[in-house]
Amino acid sequence: MRDRVCSYLKGLTRSIAVFAVAGFGCKERQEPAAAPPPAAVARLAAEGPKGAVHGVVRFSGPFTRKPPQQVSADLVAACGAEVEDRSVLLHDGALENALVTVDGAPLATTPPGKAQVDQHGCAYLPPVVLARAGGQLAIVNSDQALHNVRGKSGAANVFNVAMPLPQTITRPLPQAPGVVELKCDVHPWMHGWVAVVDHELAALTSAAGEFRLDGVPAGARTLTVWHPVLGTTHVSATVAEGQVAEVAVDLAAH
Q1: Beta 89-91 vs 94-96: how paired, if at all?
Q2: H-helix or E-strand containing 131?
Q3: What's the pLDDT tens digit per position in 46-82?
Q4: pTM summary value
Q5: Distances, alpha carbon 109 to alpha carbons 45, 120, 181, 198, 222, in Å
Q6: What pLDDT score was predicted for residue 1?
Q7: 62-95: string of b/e by CB count within 10 Å (b at 16+)?
Q8: What is the pLDDT of residues 105-130, one digit of tens each?
Q9: Residues contacting 149, CB < 8 A, separation 6+
Q10: Peptide bond into 126 cis (omega under 30)
Q11: Which residues contact 45 (CB under 8 A, 6 or more apart)?
């Protein structure tokens, strides 16, 4: 019985996806900016004097937010009448969900743990998740709706699961750093990203565009700032022992 139900759900997912694309002429959204590859620099020593880096990431360039996605009547109860595009979240120029990492950061020494993403209102929340290589991703479906979660790293499928009911499932993440893109085959506007790193010197910016990295080896350091839609830049910071280096980043200027 279980096998027949699973087979039915998989077939239903494929049928809905084909119907949406072929019947309504839906197009794939433009591919996001590629994730930065791991920096080709030597790993910094884990021991020795350390400081911190605090900063704000902004985007001052022109940007037009995509209009909200209108949903069909049968999904209003689960999704609302429309779904806001959350791929780029700007608050008076401050950029939320930008990933900031230290190039050459020492390999992590603590267990990778578990990250989480929620399918809520027919959107991935948060749209960008920070996770550790070799860790796990808890995928929550808070909607009374069928979702299909496809995670891809480049051309490779990391996982592909149907979630017909509110539930939580857990899937392993890649052992190597990179980005896992999340898409829903049933609702093609749903798009999220899991940034996978193999160290502890990484942070996502807050709604105020702020980040803080503690335990950064002292010295001249390079930070990589990446956003899945707005791209990548690199900034320098001089870290002194016991001090907090301040940096300001404008992705539009790079």
Answers
A1: antiparallel
A2: strand 128-132
A3: 999 999 999 999 999 988 889 999 998 988 998 999 9
A4: 0.84
A5: 13, 33, 26, 10, 21
A6: 41
A7: eeeeeeebebeeebeebbeeebebbbbbbeeebb
A8: 999 999 999 999 999 999 999 999 99
A9: 119, 139, 159, 160, 161, 163, 182, 183, 184
A10: yes
A11: 106, 217
C-alpha 221/C-alpha 239 separation (Å) is 7
- Measure the CA–CA gap between 59 and 140, rounded to whole angstroms: 31
Q: In CATH, what number is assigned to the domain containing residue 247? A: 2.60.40.420
Structural contact between residues 39 and 55, judged by C-beta atoms closer than 8 angstroms? no
The per-residue pLDDT for 150 is 97
The number of domains in the chain is: 1
Q: How far is CA 82 from CA 63, 92, 121, in A?
A: 21, 23, 9
Range of the domain at 156: 2-253
Cβ–Cβ under 8 Å, residues 179 and 194: yes
Residues in the chain: 254
